[in-house]
Design goal:
The complex is a heterodimer of chains A (about 200) and B (about 260).
Chain A: E1 2-5, H1 13-21, E2 26-29, H2 32-37, E3 40-43, H3 49-58, H4 62-70, E4 75-78, H5 80-83, E5 86-89, E6 95-96, E7 101-107, E8 116-121, E9 123-124, E10 139-144, E11 146-149, E12 157-162, E13 166-173, E14 176-179, H6 187-200
Parallel strand pairs in A: 1-2, 1-3, 3-4, 4-14, 5-7
Antiparallel strand pairs in A: 5-6, 7-11, 8-10, 9-12, 12-13, 13-14
Chain B: E1 5-13, E2 16-17, H1 32-42, E3 47-51, H2 59-72, E4 77-80, H3 86-95, E5 99-102, H4 104-108, H5 111-120, E6 125-135, E7 138-143, E8 148-153, H6 154-164, E9 168-173, H7 185-194, E10 199-202, H8 208-216, E11 222-225, H9 227-230, H10 236-245
Parallel strand pairs in B: 1-3, 1-11, 3-4, 4-5, 5-6, 6-9, 9-10, 10-11
Antiparallel strand pairs in B: 1-2, 6-7, 7-8
Helix pairs in contact in B: 1-2, 6-7
The chains are: A alpha/beta (about 200), B alpha/beta (about 260).
C-alpha cells in the first residue's frame, strides 16, 4: 500500500485514480501509523511552499517523513511535493523545506510566462529504470511557477525540460524520487512513469 | 519545447453534454465521460467543462461528473460555470478538477481570485473574460452569459486578474462566438501583450487555419473550441498535423497512439 499524504485542498484524487489504473493500492492519509506501515509514500503538490510546510508541521508529519525517508522508504514527490524535498524555498519569502535533497526552489525567470503551464518535452540525462519503455523526449504536463535550482546536485538529474532555462523534471537519489510535472495528468506517458516508479518500490 | 494546446469545451446541463449528438461510433454522446475519453484519445491537450445547470440542487450531479472524468482520463481539465465561492472551488478541485474558471463572480468580487490563488495556488485559478468590442480596438467585459455590460475595459481587467493571482486567462470574444469566422486576433493579442500568464483564445473557430492564426498572430498559448469538435467538422489529429506543418509546436501524435 502506498500512503498518499493528504495535507491540503488540491486535486489528489486524480493521482489515486492513476495508480488504480495499474492496480497499485493507495490510501489518502495523514495518519503517521499508516505512513509508517506503507511500502512507499507519495507527497503530492498543493498550494504554496510555506503553506504546505506549515500543514505538514501542524499534522506532525515532518518528523515521520524524515524518519521514514532516512530509513530508506521509497518516496515520490510530485510538483510542489518534489520541491519540498529541498533545503529551502523562495516562494514569497524564504522557508525551510524537508532537506532530503540539496538545493533550493526559486521562481522561474520572468523572461517566459509564469506559470510554466502545459505540455513540455523531457530530455533524459541518465539511464534510469524510471524511464523504462518511455519514448525519447516525451511530452508531460507541467503546471508550476517555481523550480529547483541553487546548489542542486547534478548527478540526481534524471530528466529535464527547457523553459527559461533548464528545469529539473525528474530527480532521483537513492530512495527519493521527484517529478516536477504531473504524471497523473500526463496521459499514457505519465501512467507509465508512475508504473515504473511502482516497480522500484 | 512547450506545446500550444488544443482544448475542446463541453457544456454540461444536469450531468449531460449539450450539443454532442452528431458523434458517430459512440454509444452515449451526451455522456460527458464518454466524450472526454473520445477527445483524450483524439489528442486533446486539455478539456473544459462548463456547468450550465441552472438550479443549485443539480450541482451535485456535476461534481459526480467531475469525479468520473478524473477517474477515466489522465489529462488536465478545467471546470467552470456557477463558481461563486472559495468553497465551490474547493469542491470541484477535491472532485478531481485541475483548474477552476471564474467569470461573473470575479467581476462582482475580485477578491475571490486572490483568496483562491493563495489557498489553492495560482496554477489552478483561471480568469475567464467575456469581451465585446465597443469601439475600434476597445473591448469591455460582459457578464451573466454575455448579457450584461460591466463597463470594465477588458485589457485592464486581464491585467488586474494577473495581479490578483490568476494563473491563466481565457478570453472569449462575444462578437466572434458561434460565427465560425475566426478568433478575435486583435483582442487576444492585446491581452497576450500585457500579461505574463498563459492566454487561452475562445470564440470563433471555424477552420483549421483559424487555430493557426490565433496561436501565431494572436500570440495565444492555447485555443479553445466547442462546436467544430462536437460536430466533427474538425478532427484533432488533422488539426495538429496542420499546425505542426505550419511550424507551430503541438504535442506529437505518437503520444496517444
Amino acid at each position: 500500500m502506498i500512503a498518499i499524504i493528504d495535507y491540503g485542498a488540491g486535486n489528489i484524487k486524480s493521482l489515486q485514480f492513476a495508480l488504480d489504473k495499474f492496480h497499485l493500492e493507495s490510501e489518502l492519509t495523514t495518519d503517521p501509523q499508516v505512513i509508517r506501515d506503507a511500502r512507499s509514500i507519495i507527497l503530492p503538490g498543493v498550494g504554496a511552499f510555506k503553506d504546505a510546510m506549515d500543514a505538514l508541521s501542524e499534522l506532525n508529519l515532518v518528523t515521520v517523513l524524515k524518519q521514514e525517508v532516512n530509513d530508506g522508504k521509497p518516496i515520490l514527490g510530485i510538483c510542489l511535493g518534489m520541491q519540498l524535498f529541498y533545503e529551502q524555498g523562495f516562494e514569497d519569502g524564504s522557508w525551510e523545506g524537508l532537506g532530503f535533497l540539496k538545493g533550493s526552489v526559486n521562481r522561474i525567470t520572468d523572461t517566459v510566462k509564469v506559470p510554466h503551464m502545459g505540455w513540455n518535452t523531457l530530455t533524459a540525462h541518465q539511464e534510469s529504470p524510471l524511464l523504462k519503455t518511455i519514448a525519447d523526449n516525451p511530452y508531460v504536463y507541467f503546471v508550476h511557477s517555481y523550480a529547483v535550482g541553487g546548489n542542486f546536485e547534478a548527478d540526481t538529474l534524471v530528466a529535464s525540460a527547457q523553459y527559461g532555462g533548464t528545469i529539473p523534471a525528474i530527480v532521483k537519489k537513492r530512495n527519493i524520487v521527484g517529478m516536477q510535472f504531473h504524471p497523473e495528468k500526463s496521459g499514457t506517458t505519465g501512467i507509465q512513469l508512475l508504473k515504473n516508479y511502482g516497480e522500484l518500490i | 519545447m512547450l506545446a500550444k494546446r488544443i482544448i475542446p469545451c463541453l457544456d454540461v446541463d444536469k450531468g449531460r453534454v449539450v450539443k454532442g449528438r452528431k458523434f458517430q461510433n459512440i454509444q452515449d454522446v451526451a455522456d460527458p465521460v464518454e466524450l472526454a475519453k473520445r477527445y483524450n484519445e483524439a489528442g486533446a491537450d486539455e478539456l473544459v467543462f462548463y456547468d450550465i445547470t441552472a438550479s443549485n440542487e443539480d450541482r451535485d450531479i456535476f461534481l459526480d461528473v467531475v469525479e468520473n472524468v478524473a477517474r477515466e482520463i489522465a489529462i488536465p481539465f478545467t471546470v467552470g460555470g456557477g463558481i461563486r465561492t472559495v468553497e465551490d472551488i474547493h469542491k470541484v478541485l477535491r472532485s478531481g478538477a485541475d483548474k477552476v474558471s471564474i467569470n461573473s463572480a470575479a467581476v462582482s468580487n475580485p477578491e475571490i481570485i486572490k483568496k483562491a490563488a493563495l489557498k489553492f495556488g495560482s496554477q489552478c485559478i483561471v480568469l475567464s473574460i467575456d469581451a465585446k468590442e465597443v469601439a475600434e480596438n476597445s473591448w469591455q467585459v460582459y457578464i451573466n452569459g454575455g448579457r450584461k455590460n460591466t463597463g470594465i475595459d477588458a485589457i485592464e481587467w486581464a491585467k488586474r486578474g494577473e495581479q490578483l493571482g490568476a494563473g491563466e486567462i481565457v478570453i472569449n470574444a462575444i462578437d466572434a462566438d458561434g460565427e465560425k469566422d475566426g478568433y478575435n486576433i486583435a483582442l487576444t493579442k492585446a491581452i497576450a501583450d500585457v500579461v505574463n500568464i498563459p492566454i487561452v483564445a475562445s470564440g470563433g473557430a471555424g477552420t483549421i487555419q483559424h487555430f493557426a492564426d490565433v496561436l501565431k498572430e494572436g500570440a495565444a498559448d492555447a485555443a479553445l473550441a466547442a462546436s467544430v469538435f462536437h460536430y466533427e467538422e474538425i478532427s484533432i489529429p488533422e488539426l495538429k498535423d496542420y499546425l505542426e506543418s505550419d511550424a507551430i509546436t503541438v504535442r506529437s501524435e505518437n503520444e496517444w497512439k
